[in-house]
Amino acid sequence: MAHLNVDVVATDRKVWSGEARMVSAPAADGEIGILAGHSPLLAVLRQGALRITPTDGEALSATVSGGFISVDDNQVTIVADDVEVATATAGR
């Protein structure tokens, strides 16, 4: 099964990197869900919840304060002004 390669960075550090099945992010125009095979995208992020469902391990839930998300060829890059990790829960 196809997966996403995800990198989450804040202005001062790398927050998370790995393979994921799904990413949900707070785009300026509304919540956006990314699955493998998503068309290329560049969007501005607003403050809100970022959720990543990895292929293995614990799910990541965080709050971003703005930034942008880029998707191209199953590579998802999230660059946020600030990222505050809320919880990590058991993966599904």
UniProtKB/TrEMBL annotation:
InterPro entries: ATP_synth_F1_dsu/esu, ATP_synth_F1_dsu/esu_N, ATPsynth_dsu/esu_N. Residues 4-82 form the ATP synthase F1 complex delta/epsilon subunit N-terminal domain. GO terms for cellular component: plasma membrane; proton-transporting ATP synthase complex. It is a peripheral membrane protein. It is found in: Cell membrane. One of its GO terms (molecular function) is ATP binding. Keywords: ATP synthesis, Cell membrane, CF(1), Hydrogen ion transport, Ion transport, Membrane, Transport. Coiled coil: none annotated. Belongs to the ATPase epsilon chain family. HAMAP family: ATP_synth_epsil_bac. NCBIfam families: ATP_synt_epsi (TIGR01216), PRK13442.1 (NF009977). F-type ATPases have 2 components, CF(1) - the catalytic core - and CF(0) - the membrane proton channel. CF(1) has five subunits: alpha(3), beta(3), gamma(1), delta(1), epsilon(1). CF(0) has three main subunits: a, b and c. Produces ATP from ADP in the presence of a proton gradient across the membrane. This is ATP synthase epsilon chain. It comes from Sediminihabitans luteus. The lineage of its organism: Bacteria, Bacillati, Actinomycetota, Actinomycetes, Micrococcales.
